[in-house]
Design goal:
The chain is 9% helix and 43% strand. The chain is mainly beta. It has two domains: 3-246, no CATH class; 259-488, no CATH class. It is globular. This is DUF4367 domain-containing protein.
Length: 491
């Protein structure tokens, strides 16, 4: 039987799929007939599978994929929840069917028959394939990976919220689903996804797509993808599966420590020494940990341009931050109130324009021990802290319902680069590890200066503390932060 004939014989989603979805919705809701607002605490989680469904009355969009694998008929279905939610999954022609996955399957490699103009292809260390525009290699683009079809897949339901466009279609010889999510920021983060069902290879291809890639280019790219056997076999028992992707195990985590008493946190001023435990290697390449590397802030400088970095290699996202007068462009902020993602979307409730400033800090590292350390990891991150009534507090990034000028909002976005408190610029690099923020060698008694820089919103200068503990904490008073202390660099 041909594929087109199969489609004609299966015009609607089977009743057992409807029942399965309704049961899953009721199970997640805890009771029938209840609508629940789906809230994602971190603003960049544009399509992490929601753990709660919100509407039990579902409107079918129909089948999105039909394909043969051996003697079993595999399908992907997609159904709508409210205005902006969807449910999707993989099933077989019969509810009683089960997929038998072999112990080994042929290893496959993704190949592209079409690459959008201006994009580059790379296979990264994690095993995923990425496409990106050369001017923004660390942002947006397309990230492609595969997951295994397993025996639990027909019981799993993928629920997504904030979906403003969904389409079932054929991508070349394969069937799949295209989803686009609300994206108020347009900051080269992923706001689209394509799922391609590949039952012959026991795979589902997942393409995460940035807002810098057009839908047309993404679809054309997907239409021309192929899975090519490498000649090797791989065991299936350790492969990440579709059912794990849809229903990942969520570990309980401790709440963030966003406040601490002034008496419980060591805070020093520029010129005063701190001590920290650092890691690196011996000259022979063996792991090394030193307990007492010293560090201090020598100077703090503020500028409204990048002149302090003349001659330095700038971070890519800083290369176009200057306005027409050679000064840092303003940051246009949007204060956003979250919708529930099913019946309502996020909306901008307030806007504001603030100046951006370059914060340039020079730090000295000193090795007071008798042991040289090679490839020493270092890191400086900003913590934006309010000090009041004997307490230090950072904003709880998992909280919501803030207020500004009488307006309630949940999070803030901007079109500038002042969006990260991680160490963005640093002057000493080592061709080692991930990121290069290593000191090649710090000998006994040696002192070495490192320049660090950030672009931040001008109002945040009055809240800036420097965390040199090496772990990069920005939004929490971790144990390492409490052990090492902070440097007060407020301006």
């Amino acid at each position: 039987m041909r594929l087109e004939e199969i489609k004609k014989e299966l015009p609607e989603t089977p009743d057992f799929i409807h029942r399965m979805i309704v049961e899953e919705v009721e199970n997640q809701l805890g009771k029938k007939g209840t609508a629940v607002s789906i809230r994602t605490p971190r603003k960049k989680r544009k399509w992490s599978p929601a753990r709660v469904a919100a509407v039990a009355a579902l409107c079918a969009l129909g089948f999105s994929t039909v394909a043969y694998a051996g003697y079993q008929l595999y399908t992907m279905y997609v159904e709508k929840q409210g205005k902006y939610g969807i449910s999707a999954g993989i099933t077989m022609e019969k509810a009683s069917a089960s997929l038998i996955v072999p112990d080994e399957i042929p290893q496959v490699k993704i190949q592209a028959g079409y690459i959008p103009e201006g994009m580059e292809w790379v296979d990264d260390a994690s095993g995923k394939t990425r496409l990106f525009y050369s001017e923004t290699p660390d942002q947006g683009g397309i990230s492609i990976g595969t997951v295994l079809l397993d025996s639990d897949d027909t019981d799993q339901i993928l629920t997504e919220t904030g979906v403003i466009e969904s389409e079932k279609r054929t991508f070349g010889s394969r069937e799949g689903i295209y989803l686009r999510f609300q994206d108020l920021e347009q900051d080269k983060t992923f706001n689209q996804v394509i799922y391609l069902l590949c039952p012959e290879e026991y795979q589902v291809i997942i393409m995460n797509i940035g807002d810098d890639v057009t839908k047309e280019d993404a679809i054309k790219f997907a239409e021309n993808l192929s899975l090519v056997k490498t000649g090797e076999m791989e065991k299936t028992e350790n492969l990440y599966s579709w059912s794990e992707y849809v229903s990942p195990q969520i570990e309980d985590s401790e709440p963030l420590e966003t406040s601490i008493s002034e008496k419980d946190l060591l805070v020093v001023k520029p010129g005063e020494w701190l001590e920290q435990r650092v890691t690196g290697e011996t000259e022979n390449g063996e792991y090394l940990e030193l307990e007492k590397i010293q560090m201090k802030v020598d100077s703090v400088q503020i500028a409204d341009n990048l002149s302090l970095l003349d001659g330095a290699e700038l971070p890519l996202k800083w290369r176009e931050v200057l306005g027409s007068e050679g000064k840092l462009a303003a940051n246009h902020l949007s204060y956003i109130k979250r919708g529930d993602g099913v019946e309502t979307l996020d909306q901008v409730v307030k806007t504001e324009t603030v100046n951006q400033k370059l914060l340039f800090v020079t730090v000295t590292y000193k090795n007071p021990t008798e042991t040289p350390i090679y490839h020493m990891l270092y890191h400086g991150s900003l913590m934006l802290i309010d000090k009041k009534d004997g307490m230090y507090s950072v904003r709880d990034v998992e909280a919501e319902n803030f207020q500004k000028d009488g307006v309630e909002y949940d999070f803030v976005t901007g079109d500038g680069v002042a969006s990260s408190t991680d160490m963005t610029y640093y002057s000493i690099h080592d061709d080692y590890g991930n990121g290069g923020n290593y000191i090649p060698v710090l000998n006994p008694g040696e002192e070495l200066q490192v320049d660090m820089a950030w672009i931040i919103n001008e109002p945040d200068l009055s809240k800036a503390f420097l965390n040199l503990s090496g772990e990069g904490a920005c939004w929490e008073f971790t144990e390492t932060v409490r052990e090492t202390g902070l440097v007060d660099i407020r301006q």
